[in-house]
Amino acid sequence: MASEPKVPGGAYAIGCDIGATQMRAALSDRGGDLLQRAAGPTEPERGIDDAAGRAWSLIVEVSEGVGRDEIAGIGISAAGPIEPSTGTYNHPPNLPGWHGRTMVPYLRNATQLPVRVIHDAHAAAVAEAKYGAAQGLKDVVYVTVSTGIGGGMISDGVPVNGRHGMAGEIGHLLIDTAGPLCNAGCHGCLEVFAAGGGSAAQARRLAEGGGAAAMLALADGDPGRITGRMVYEAAEAGDSDAAAIVETAVDALATGFANILATFDPGVLVVGGSVVVGDEAVRGLAPYWDDLIGRVKSRGLLRFRDEVPIVVSRLGDDVGLKGAAAMAFEAADSTDD
Length: 337
Fold this sequence. Notes:
The chain is of the alpha/beta class. It has helices at 48-62, 104-111, 120-131, 190-194, 196-208, 213-218, 228-236, 240-264, 274-277, 289-299, 319-336, and strands spanning 12-18, 22-29, 34-41, 71-78, 82-83, 88-89, 115-119, 140-145, 149-155, 158-159, 268-272, 310-312. α1 runs parallel beside α2, α5 (196-208) crosses α7 and α8 (240-264) packs across α10.
């Protein structure tokens, strides 16, 4: 980072997104535009100290040509569970060996910049409120439906963290307690019925019983290779087994979303994640969206019958980076005040 004259408040912030498989960094301006990017594998098995060093390298890369005094701070969007005040992980299921550890002191010492940590789903909620589908609203819920299901909430403009920094485990809302067990030990939660991983697990169980032929074909005959994406691909092609799994997902999401609306009364519920937005080849939940909203209307409180405040995210994969940078700006500006 070159030495440059100080810009009041900092013209830029750096957002980092630390996931289980990939870590990313981006230089953001105050309008939320990501100007420079870098990415690399997380490789959590190499340990958190090694990962922190590689995160620092990404930060250096994206801040090339920008003076340290121009940077308001660093925001980290992190897969949890994580304590946001310290960045300390609490038994993260996909980051082995990181429990009780934090990379925040390393990054503060290396960058000489303030570091703010936020759970990745909460970062997404912040980004949607500032730059996306929830602009101008102070009460927002964000739900990501991907391999798993997570959520973040903003109440009166402030992220809701909970006592241990773990609020927003929306994937573990109970739908049917007689249902399958999830990886976190919940029977019949939203995640096992509606997440990509849950849909894939349902398909594998069908395959073991002699069904799921279309999905098995997509997985080259190996049930263990069936993914949620394959379920939706087979459903779009007209396969009845896949269609039944997608029907289960839509029904579970409708119940979950109706419960969320009743509990939080948000200005908007923003839904993102790979299962929702799909891609050019497989559209995910897009073909079923009107049916999903119709079911929410029929199950929700009367005040949601005429208008259901549920929308699809417009920020895509950038949502965590934008939210992390926004929190870095907010922290710097509050300190300046």
